[in-house]
Amino acid sequence: ERVGLGTAALVLPLRHPVLLAKEIASLQALSRGRFILGVATGWDEKEFDVMGAPLKERGKRTDEALNVISRLLSEEEVSFQGRFFQFEDVTIHPRVAPPPLWVAGGSLGHAPETPDKPYIAPGVLRRILTADGWMCRSSGSDLEMVRKDWEEVRRFLQESRRDPDTLTFGHTQFVHVVETDTTEEALEVQVPHFIRVMGTHRTEDDLRASYLLGTIEEIQGRIAELAEVGLEYLIVTPVANDPAQVELISKHVVQPFGV
Asked: Is pLDDT above 90 for 160?
């Protein structure tokens, strides 16, 4: 009755928005209004090639899909003639209140395999302007990047005459808790788990720049720094299939921050 349900984040330009709108409506109905739709544009060119969607169209596809989903969840007998999607007289059941929309995106300076730039693209800022929440980039150590992004988002909202305080600042992170006071011992255990999930192309420095690694004190310190910047909502994901991690995360990540 209390646990939230959401996507953080769904790569929207790879999905057909009509089918997705139906899935969203069903999830929203089954969860009794506890669903949050978190979306991103994606970055992996191979994923886009497999789905027959050019990577260069990801932003425009995302915006058109958001338009389609919004209309299908709020109107009946929707017809749409867009650049990527066309349909006539579609009604989605069950009829539900549209879920909150969270938009992911931000600058990126430490992952050369992605096409993203070290600044927030104007299209991403416009997308965030219409959203209920923003999910910043995963950043374990580059707090300054997150700080600059949040300042840019708030400035854009103010210039667009929207109160920045109406936007939830969220963050999705991956973590593996190791009960040791030594960084080297923690990394020795953590890095293999992260490589298994994130891929062998990622260096240890890149993983540490992106995610929550190190001692418990270091992990807590990074979360506290994000909270000082303005972080309100943190989603943490274990990278190991170990039930003990749920207890460790609860003890060392959730409870210390008063949740």
From this structure: yes
Distance (Å, rounded) from C-alpha 38 to C-alpha 133? 8
Q: Using alpha carbons, list the distances in angstroms from residue 149 to 22, 79, 143, 146, 198.
A: 33, 37, 10, 5, 24
Q: Is the peptide bond before 131 cis (omega within 30 degrees of 0)?
A: no
Extended beta strands in the chain, E state = 5-6, 10-11, 35-40, 78-81, 86-90, 101-104, 133-136, 168-175, 233-238
> Given 3-state DSSP classes, what are the helix, strand and coil percentages for the chain, each rounded to the nearest 5?
45, 15, 35
164-204 confidence digits (pLDDT tens): 999 999 999 999 999 999 999 999 999 999 999 998 888 88
Rounded to whole angstroms, the Cα distance separating 200 from 204 reads: 10
207-236 pLDDT, tens digit per residue, is 988 899 999 999 999 999 999 989 999 999
Whether the Cβ atoms of residue 134 and residue 167 lie closer than 8 Å to each other: yes
Decide: 109 and 192 in contact? Cβ < 8 Å. no
Please, are residues 117 and 107 in contact by the beta-carbon 8 Å criterion? Answer: yes
- pTM to 2 decimal places: 0.90
